Amino acid sequence: MHLEIITPESNVYSGEATAVQLPGLDGSFQVLNSHAPIISALTAGTVKVDLADAFEREEKTSELIQQDKSNAKVIYVDIKGGVIEMLNNKIIVLAE
After folding, report:
1. Integer-rounded Cα radius of gyration of the chain
2. Which domain does 14 fall in, by range?
3. Which CATH number covers residue 28?
4. Which pLDDT score, from 0 to 100, does residue 7 have?
5. What is the DSSP string of 21-70?
6. pLDDT at residue 61 greater than cutoff 90
7. How many CA atoms lie within 13 A of 21 on its CB side?
8. Is 75:65 a contact under the CB 8 Å cutoff?
């Protein structure tokens, strides 16, 4: 599934993911490939992304992305809140 994490300042991440764990208002929840359509508010916390391929940091990579030291296919992004939309196997996270 395609994932985009966007803040008012920048496009933090855009790429393929197999699972995304998010900090929802009522607790953490996970979205997997082919998940039913969903819109949800997010609270402050960490977004955990299981990538389809190993993450490679580039010069233009956002400083908000933290790479898992033991698994090259996992990244973390700290957010202050936001909204997620999952539709047609595409996730858009609008975060602060």
Report:
1. 12
2. 2-95
3. 2.60.15.10
4. 93
5. EEEETTEEEEEETTPPPEEEEE-SEEEEEEESS-----TT--TTEEE-SS
6. no
7. 9
8. yes
User: Structural domain tally of the chain?
Assistant: 1
Tell me the C-alpha distance between 27 and 43, whole Å: 9
Can you tell me the distance from the alpha carbon of 62 to that of 13, in angstroms, rounded to the nearest whole number?
Answer: 7
Q: Taking 90 as the threshold, does the pLDDT of residue 75 lie above it?
A: yes
* pLDDT of residue 96 exceeding 80: yes
- Check: CB of residue 15 under 8 Å from CB of residue 2: yes
Question: Tell me: the pLDDT tens digits for 2-56?
Answer: 999 999 988 999 999 999 999 999 999 999 998 899 999 999 999 999 998 888 8
**What are the Cα distances from residue 75, in Å, to 38, 62, 88?**
22, 12, 23
Pairing of strands 82-87, 90-95: antiparallel
